[in-house]
Specification:
Layout (H helix, E strand, L loop, with lengths): L1 E5 L3 H13 L2 E6 L10 E4 L1 H9 L3 H6 L4 H4 L3 E3 L5 E4 L9 E4 H10 L6 E3 L2 E5 L4 E5 L5 E5 L2 E4 L6 H4 L7 E12 L11 E4 L3 E7 L5 E8 L9 H9 L6 H6 L7 E8 L7 E2 L2 E3 L2 H4 L8 H20 L6 H33 L3 H14 L2 H12 L6
Parallel strand pairs: 1-2, 1-11, 2-7, 4-13, 11-18
Antiparallel strand pairs: 3-6, 4-5, 8-9, 9-10, 12-15, 12-16, 13-14, 14-15, 17-18
């Protein structure tokens, strides 16, 4: 099988590694010439870890992460530091937080030499498996593949070519993200802090550095001339170690971006020989920390279903169609349900005004630990198809 993977993000690289190890001839088209990801991190829960295990990447992933994140006290706090809710510790034992740069290196290094093609921008992909790309000289080239995996992200060119593309919508909030320059003692506590139209999240990396994010309800066009100063203004009086984390991060390594998601549900993740994975299929808000995990599930599922065909030259259309139809049936309901839950959490976290925020806090405090456990387990209790 000849497979084209469009996009060298998490979903694209995981799929490429899985298909390549199953016997497929894989080419990864990546529009960026510089493959270094920005300075942020990713939370990977149990479902994502099992997906990586099924792709043969689990051991390498564990080597660059630690289980510390799941051992800390986590949940939601108020800006003064008072806990609203604490996650049951046994529900997060598989949670690991990874620097995106390290994860990207792990995935890209697992590919066969020469299969990753940076600086190659795909401008079209047809249901028949024909891919048109543009290189550095600007000349369009076309090639034919048995399978096309569209992993080209939120602004997917492939998805936009579909008649039922729902488009993109702004969530109502934007975020800063950063990783501290050195280790910071969290004193055994992490999780999120919720204010009025603002929240702050904390997650430790294996080497003691801390990944953090700050979220603010603002118009999409809002920007700040000095991100570090804005962060101090919005979060400088919040409980420790929030001010310390901001101060411990070089301003040049702080990223700010609006949070967008798909404006609606795609009616299908497959068209002919093309399969969408990751954000191209189900771009979601990051409120559940499942964007990367769902992309990993996509990759593991697609690999498992296509493994019998991967080493077959020019596999039959009926067999390929059956496998892709099954992929859509397995992945679309689950990933879209997770996206909907993530959106609901964001709406709860960013209710308008102090009165509604106070009511929200009462609801969070009154939620039984058993309900939190069921919610966490329902998201993480996933395994790849046999």
């Amino acid at each position: 099988m000849r497979a084209a993977v469009i996009g060298a993000g998490i979903g694209g690289l995981c799929t490429a590694v899985g298909l390549q190890r199953a016997g497929a001839e894989v080419t990864v088209h990546e529009r960026a010439a510089d493959l270094r990801p920005g300075g942020s991190a990713l939370s990977v829960f149990g479902n994502g870890v099992r997906a990586l295990d099924s792709l043969g990447l689990g051991d390498g992933f564990r080597a660059i992460t630690s289980a510390e994140a799941g051992l800390l006290r986590g949940g939601q706090r108020r800006p003064g530091g008072r806990w609203l809710a604490t996650f049951p510790a046994e529900s997060l034992t598989e949670l690991r937080v990874v620097d995106r740069a390290q994860l990207h290196e792990l995935l890209s290094s697992a590919l066969a030499s020469g299969s990753l093609r940076p600086g190659r921008r795909v401008i079209a992909a047809t249901a028949e498996g024909r891919v048109t790309h543009v290189g550095a000289d600007g000349t369009p080239e076309e090639d034919a593949f048995d399978l096309v995996v569209a992993a080209d992200g939120l602004h997917s060119i492939v998805r936009q070519s579909l008649p039922d593309d729902p488009g993109i919508a702004y969530s109502g909030y934007s975020t800063w993200r950063g990783i501290t320059d050195g280790p910071v003692d969290l004193h055994g506590e992490a999780g999120e802090t919720w204010g009025v139209g603002r929240r702050f999240g904390i997650a430790p990396l294996a080497d003691g550095r801390v990944y953090w994010f700050a979220v603010l309800s603002v118009p999409r066009a809002q920007h700040f001339d000095d991100d570090a100063a804005a962060l101090r203004g919005f979060f400088g009086a919040w409980h420790a170690p929030i001010p310390e984390l901001i101060a411990a991060t070089a301003p040049s390594r702080i990223q700010y971006l609006p949070i967008d998601e798909l404006a609606g549900r795609l009616p299908g993740y497959v068209q002919g020989r093309v399969a969408l994975v990751g954000d191209a299929a189900h771009a979601m808000t990051p409120n559940l920390g499942q964007g990367g995990g769902q992309a990993m599930e996509d990759a593991a599922t697609l690999t498992a279903l296509l493994a019998p065909l991967a080493s077959v030259p020019s596999p039959g259309g009926a067999e390929l169609s059956a496998a892709l139809t099954r992929y859509d049936a397995l992945r679309r309901p689950r990933s879209q349900a997770v996206a909907a839950r993530s959106r609901a959490v964001g709406r709860l976290a960013h209710v308008r005004g102090r009165a509604l925020a106070g009511l929200r806090d009462l609801v969070v405090r009154a939620t039984p630990a058993s309900a939190l456990r069921r919610q966490l387990e329902s998201i993480q209790s996933w395994s790849p198809p046999a």
